[in-house]
Amino acid sequence: xxxxxxxxxxxxxxxxxxxxxxxxxxxxxxxxxxxxxxxxxxxxxxxxxxxxxxxxxxxxxxxxxxxxxxxxxxxxxxxxxxxxxxxxxxxxxxxxxxxxxxxxxxxxxxxxxxxxxxxxxxxxxxxxxxxxxxxxxxxxxxxxxxxxxxxxxxxxxxxxxxxxxxxxxxxxxxxxxxxxxxxxxxxxxxxxxxxxxxxxxxxxxxxxxxxxxxxxxxxxxxxx
Length: 224
Ligand code: MG
Description:
Blueprint: H1 2-27, E1 31-37, H2 43-54, E2 60-66, H3 71-76, E3 82-87, H4 99-106, E4 116-120, E5 137-143, H5 150-153, H6 155-159, E6 163-167, H7 179-189, E7 194-197, H8 206-223
Magnesium ion (MG) binds next to helix 2.
């Protein structure tokens, strides 16, 4: 019973900081996307493909969440306007980024010069679902080698997603992944979700994903 209360308090505190982050972001007209997936599904690859396509159209910053390393931050370093690395390390909630970490990262980003922030969350399908960061959109990447049963095993992360990206479509002939069954499981949890079938390797589907995002960034900027 005691333990449940502690978790509840952590989540409430997190939500308070997340709303504060959101206010700050809205004040500066910065749109934020929280990208979540299991390890190896293609978060960094999607960010790199997105940065390449948005070059010259939007000023993009990246927040890289990782338990320990800086390898992903190094990959995006030269491609983004600003990159901030967060290592969650040995903290009790190290399996996800939390709003307080984003609050501190935002201090290192020149918000007046930025249109879009892409957050690469820690590779995990459980914890990131619980922690709001102040983002405008939540995106989950599922890749074909993971299998099509992830929405059944980890429903929560799909319930709150605005978009689900099915990555590694180039592997379709080689794996048993039932796209229709996967989409049915996700829409059963979340009827309004938007799907993108992409391959970061071949570039298939990336343009459509970037258009979807661009449209939302522009609407967000026009609103204020
Ligand atoms: Mg990565």
